[in-house]
Specification:
alpha/beta; Enolase-like, domain 1; TIM Barrel; 2 domains; ten-stranded mixed β-sheet; 13 helices; 13 strands; about 35% helix; globular; disordered C terminus
Length: about 400
């Protein structure tokens, strides 16, 4: 059985667009006719350029190979052009293709992927959602509103979630770390207090940031929100500064989480050494399922847990589920609400979520199939990136941040 054909789908995500502007799915076909699907999360270049990278990685390192030669294909891609170092764009392209290879191997053996990653240790997987404005809330004021955030959190917890994530602390900008203003700190404290009051002990609070603080600014924020006992303090400093991450981890009482922007074990090991105790790999960027499994093994040795990240489409979500089912050190999975309706529409069979937990599918491979008709009916025709950062760290009128 050899890899023969590749098709790339760049799918526009209709409003409200939770999960990003578009999703990049890949379809691999073998010479025996078995189809596998994957998803690429990395998108530092535009979708046309990213499609070209995916096609080049496939043609150069995977075409004609047996789909079970995961390690060989990874090493070839990782070392391409005399690099042998993390490259989020190239490794991101490989990540989606690698998922599709596992999907093919699972289907060929009539086994779910988790059975091939050491076997299932979790029957159902705890999940959390970011707080997104509901249909009756104002998306322009929601993210700075303690009242609206608390109402949304209570609604999510009533649905069954035992953890919710939010990021009220200001913009993530191209300028790197900055000091939070007193307005940022006060707003963050106000929202933490409102959420804790709304959910009590029924749910954990997950304090998200996007690498926007200096070391001192992160420590200042951590001290302010500590009384509300957030389960984690996410990516408090820029992801390229592990020394700063270490100073934050060692200087505050909160558990530090990181990883959505990191790729391969070469970047996750320094994060563990810096003191991160919760790792958040994005499977469409990190190197794929096999690389993420290796990272999870490293995390075990550091007494750290895994919480796979999701701000992408349903194929990465399905891959997270397969990985999570095999991890003894799984903390929880991210998802978008109870399952973004468009996410579920893109699958021929929806993912089963109930009472705060995802149920692990038993079907072969990823356990889901991409609805290609829906994917083709929603092409992304824009030129903007999947996510974009604010250009400057200057506040808007009234002291509130413009957001990222």
């Amino acid at each position: 059985m050899k890899l023969r054909d590749l098709e790339v789908f760049v799918v526009g995500n209709p409003p409200p667009g939770f999960g990003g502007r578009y999703f990049i799915f890949v379809k691999l076909v073998t010479d025996t006719g078995i189809v596998g699907y994957g998803e690429v999360y990395a998108a530092a270049v535009g979708p046309v350029a990213m499609q070209a990278v995916i096609e080049d990685v496939f043609a150069r390192h995977m075409l004609g190979q047996s789909p079970d030669r995961i390690e060989q294909m990874f090493r070839s891609t990782y070392s391409a052009g005399f690099t042998q170092r993390p490259d989020p764009t190239v490794i991101g392209a490989f990540s989606g293709l690698e998922m599709a290879c596992w999907d093919i191997v699972g289907k060929a053996l009539n086994r779910p992927i988790h059975a091939l990653l050491g076997g299932q240790v979790n029957d159902r997987l705890r999940s959390y959602t970011y707080l997104y404005p509901t249909e009756d809330q104002d998306p322009l004021t929601f993210y700075n509103s303690a009242e609206q955030s608390a109402a949304c959190a209570a609604r999510m917890v009533d649905l069954g979630f035992t953890a919710v994530k939010f990021d009220p602390a200001g913009p993530y900008t191209i300028m790197g770390g900055h000091q939070p203003t007193m307005v940022d700190v006060a707003r963050s404290v106000e929202i933490c207090a409102a959420l804790r009051d709304a959910v009590g002990s029924r749910a954990d609070l997950l304090f998200g940031t996007h690498g926007q603080f200096t070391t001192g600014g992160a420590l200042r924020m951590a001290q302010a929100i500590a009384p509300y006992q957030p389960l984690w303090f996410e990516e408090p400093v820029p992801p390229d500064n592990m020394a700063a991450l270490a100073r934050v981890a060692n200087g505050c009482a909160l558990s530090v989480a990181t990883g959505e922007r990191l790729t391969t074990k070469a970047e996750f090991l320094p994060a563990l050494q810096a003191g991160a105790t919760i790792l958040q790999p994005a499977l469409g960027r990190v190197g794929g399922l096999w690389e993420a499994k290796k990272i999870a093994g490293m995390a075990e040795a550091f007494n750290a847990q895994m919480a796979p990240h999701l701000y992408a489409g349903p194929i990465e979500w399905a891959a997270n589920i397969q990985l999570g089912a095999s991890l003894p050190n799984l903390l929880m999975l991210e998802q978008i609400g109870t399952g973004n309706p468009f996410h579920q529409h893109l699958l021929t069979t929806p993912i089963h979520w109930e009472d705060g937990y995802v149920h692990v599918p038993t079907a072969p491979g990823l356990g889901v199939e991409l609805n290609e008709d829906v994917a083709r009916a929603h092409p992304y025709t824009g030129t903007r990136l999947h996510l974009e950062m604010q250009a400057t760290p200057h506040p808007t009128a009234g002291g509130l941040w413009a957001g990222g």
